[in-house]
Amino acid sequence: MKKELAIDRFLKNIINKYMYEICLCLLLLAAVVIRIKFAPETTLSPDYNDYYKVWVDYYRENGIIKGLGNAIGDYYVPLNVMYALCSLLPVEPWLPLSIVAFICELVSAVFIFKIFYLLTGRKHHSMFAGIATLFLPFVAFNGSLWKQVDALYTCFLMISLYKLLKQEYRASFIWYGVAFAVKLQSIIFLPIYLILYITEGFHSYDRVLKDSGKRNTFSILEFLWIPAVYFIAGLPEVLCQNGLKRTYLSYLYQTRELDTEGYGMVSYFPNLYNLGFDNFDKLLSGAAIMLLFVVLVIIAFFCYRRKDNIDRKLVVYLTIFTAWTCVVLLPGMHERYDYAMLLLLTPFAVLLRKKIVWPMFIANACSLATYAYALFGAKDIVNMTVVSLFYVGAYLYTLIDVVKLLNDENHQVS
């Protein structure tokens, strides 16, 4: 028998000891390679050349102080500061924008791991779930190919949710305030905070920390951290003499885009309003918001009825479901606004709620079809009405599951 060489023994010993870690590193490397390939492509993005590059060039020509003073672009201050800082680098804007997005995707992956490790106690499964989110099509396409910023506010939402599950409420509200200051779409996570206030918190049964299932709640005053962070985030533009009204009413102006930019009830998002309601925004917008309000009130009532039997897993499920409800029912949704919801839904269905694996797959497939429609010119192939039927169907299936779960106080997420 041929004697095994020392180098082979060494390599096999490394593999036997660290096979899992090696696989994770290889997956991470693959995620990096995908983004290196995507990042230089700027012609597919419907926004990069018309908006992001224009804004960065404006800061380069006029300086950061004048740029912030004129509030170039239609985002709130933190993102405007990001574009301003990009102007200081001697490279094309797509490079720093792609790098920032990928860093935020990595932060989200880390906190996906921490969230699901907290829920399941399964370290390797949770770690794989976090890394796997980097390969979800909407994650890879959004930042590196589209040059969008959804990964930025989402990573802060993941941090805030983790802190919420740890019952570190003040830290959770502060991080949520950061997410909200980055982008208005973070509002879709607000219902879970309201529900938990009404239900007086939840039981923190924790397989990892082995605690006693402590239960505590938080004061209504903790919500003030959200406007406080928003106010602080606006100071760079105020100090650059943009004006209080223009700065702090930024989100109000964004909500008016429904009328001023002619989006209709929906902008390439596969929700309810693609089913023949898109052109009736002046008639239906108010009713749509009230419909969302009614659904959330009903869900809050069901939660209140079983408030003594709410645990961390149910909190995460409710976070996913209420966020999904918002994007399905709110008017003016764009093709990317379910980013944070899908990022949570995907590992949650695989690791904790097998009953909704098929709705999860359908929602991801609909997201892929939507990106194909918006990014890759597949408008002749992708029928948004059909995509919306599947997407809304997946949501309704999950709605039924949530209602059944809340109606049975003895039933737990599993």
Would you mind describing this structure in some detail?
- It is found in: Cell membrane.
- It is built from 20 helices and four strands.
- 67% of the residues lie in helices and 2% in strands.
- Mean pLDDT is 91; it is low at 207-212.
- Helix 2 crosses helix 4 (77-86), helix 10 packs parallel to helix 16 (281-305) and helix 18 packs antiparallel against helix 19.
- The chain is mostly helical.
- The longest helix has 33 residues, at 6-38.
- The strands form two sheets. A two-stranded antiparallel ribbon has the order 1-2. A two-stranded parallel ribbon has the order 3-4.
The gist of it:
With 414 residues, the chain is mostly helical. 67% of the residues lie in helices and 2% in strands.
**In which range does the helix fraction lie?**
55-70%
Strand arrangement, major sheet: 1-2
Quote the average pLDDT.
91
Q: Using only CA atoms, what is the Rg?
A: 22 Å
What portion of the residues fall into strands of 2 or more residues?
A: under 5%
**Uncertain spans, ≥5 residues at pLDDT below 50?**
207-212
Head-to-tail CA distance between termini: 52 Å
Please give the domain count: 1
What's the β-strand tally?
A: 4
Structural class: mainly alpha
Number of helices: 20
- Using the alpha-carbon principal axes, give the shape: globular
SSE pattern, N- to C-terminal? HHHHHHHHHHEEHHHHHEHHEHHH
Biggest pleated-sheet summary: 2 strands, antiparallel
